[in-house]
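User: I've been trying to design a sequence by hand for this structure and keep getting stuck. Would you show me what you'd pick, starting by listing the structure so we're on the same page?

Assistant: Good idea, let's start from the same input. This is the structure you sent:
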């Protein structure tokens, strides 16, 4: 039995926690999992290898350019758009069009999204979107950030934020958060998540078994139940 070192993006955490636990039960292998945003994990991997990574496609590509991804091991698992959430029971604002979203954001007393400097895909994108919409300066005083690698919807629960913006499954990971919808039309962006084996892995066969399980019909059902789309 092997102990696999797994670095996984929080973008799939809601589904992956359940699937990793299932893999440990059925295979007998142990998983040592580190969670974070893809850029945070890529930086950590540069200083020491993992066995398996589950990252955004951009994170996988960054590691592949450094020769750290085993050839032919990359597998697409799921994808997600960026959503807006409120605390369960709160009124759901209108975000159905770009103009409606802009008005909702300006009317909100407080919002939460991932701090762009932490490198999370949704936070980087949303900060740029606010600039594109011409409301970045108005939003700064009422913006709250979760800790790096954390969930913006947690700030709904503490009352620090009225609206939370993040990948849809990251929002759903927080009990008590309710999805309003995805960013409207072409304002939305889809992030693809993939798994791969690291070139330095000494447990390649166990890593292959984990990735195979993450592609199973049972795993696909779990990904979908947590708000992720699958190929």
């Amino acid at each position: 039995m092997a102990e696999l070192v797994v670095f996984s993006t929080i973008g799939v955490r809601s589904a992956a926690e359940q699937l990793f636990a299932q893999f440990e039960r059925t295979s007998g292998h142990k998983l040592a999992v580190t969670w974070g945003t893809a850029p945070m994990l890529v930086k950590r991997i540069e200083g020491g290898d993992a066995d398996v990574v589950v990252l955004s496609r951009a994170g996988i590509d960054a590691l592949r350019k450094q020769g750290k991804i085993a050839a032919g091991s990359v597998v697409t698992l799921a994808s997600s758009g960026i959503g807006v959430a409120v605390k369960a029971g709160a009124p759901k604002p209108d975000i159905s069009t770009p103009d409606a979203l802009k008005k909702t954001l300006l009317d909100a007393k407080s919002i939460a999204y991932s701090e762009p400097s932490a490198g999370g895909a949704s936070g980087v994108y949303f900060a740029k979107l606010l600039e594109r919409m011409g409301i970045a300066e108005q939003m700064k005083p009422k913006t709250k950030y979760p800790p790096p690698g954390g969930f913006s919807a947690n700030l709904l629960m503490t009352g620090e934020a009225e609206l939370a913006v993040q990948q849809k499954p990251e929002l759903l990971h927080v009990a008590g958060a309710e999805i309003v919808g995805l960013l409207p039309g072409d304002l939305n962006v889809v992030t693809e998540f993939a798994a791969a084996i690291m070139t330095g892995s000494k447990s390649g066969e166990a890593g292959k078994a984990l990735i195979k399980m993450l592609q199973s019909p049972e795993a696909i059902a779990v990904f979908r139940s947590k708000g992720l789309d699958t190929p």
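That's my pick for every position. To get oriented when you compare it with your attempt: Strands lie at 3-9, 30-36, 52-56, 75-80, 82-87, 111-113, 143-144, 163-167, 177-182, 191-197. The two ends are 31 Å apart (CA to CA).
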